[in-house]
Amino acid sequence: SVEECKKANLHHKRGITKLELRWTDDLEWENIAGDGHGKEVVEHLLPSIMLEDLRILCYGGLKLPSWISKPSFYKLKSITLFKCENCRLLPSLGRLPSLEFLTLIEFIQVKIIDMHFYVETAHSDHVAFPKLQKLEIKSLLSLEEWRETRKVRYFPCLTKLVIKDCPQLTTICRLSGIHCLECLEINNCGKLPSLPEGGLPSSMKTLVIDDCPMLSLSCSSSLEKSQDWHKSEHTSSLLIYQRNEGKRRESASVTN
């Protein structure tokens, strides 16, 4: 109940640096939300600004609590959001100043990733996800588009991006401007026809494509013609490309 959450007083418990909020099943969420106060209950689970690691699992609400987007969580480094099956939008997390690791799993209602994911209100001087190093997007079964946004800069420190089990996905955002990206893994995205316009950044070392027949065909015809890349592993469904180190250094020096 709201009263129980108020008594828990998580906001003032500065010794809590790791927090997991877990609902065991849909029935438990219905018991919380049945009186119409489900969202209010979760809003009152506001943790301390000293939080470093947050996990929310099996959340049944339509929208995650507003506090999850607050830049006042200046020490928050890792977020895992799992099985938030009723949420239609990903939360806006781009203003968290210290976030390094973000994992999003089973947001099965989400169809589009757009500017809201980066910032709620865009300004030209915004840099979204300024410290993020690793982003994993998995089992977004309805996701169709990861839209390009030119209103904010994003992912200046991202080194690894994993997109897995998004069978309806047809477009992903431009990657060429993510200048620290070293590893891209795309798995079971059967409708993704090609890499985004602009290609891959010069920082890239490894590209893994698994169970993506259209994308595999596209990459085979483009990357294998390039002297920058070589195929290090090849099975019926799996392709792994490695950038030739000399070419990578050469590209980086030209870029710089």
TrEMBL record:
Q: Which InterPro entries match?
A: LRR_dom_sf, LRR_R13L1-DRL21
Where does the R13L1/DRL21-like LRR repeat region domain lie? 2-106
Under what name is this protein listed? R13L1/DRL21-like LRR repeat region domain-containing protein
Q: Which domain of life is it from?
A: Eukaryota
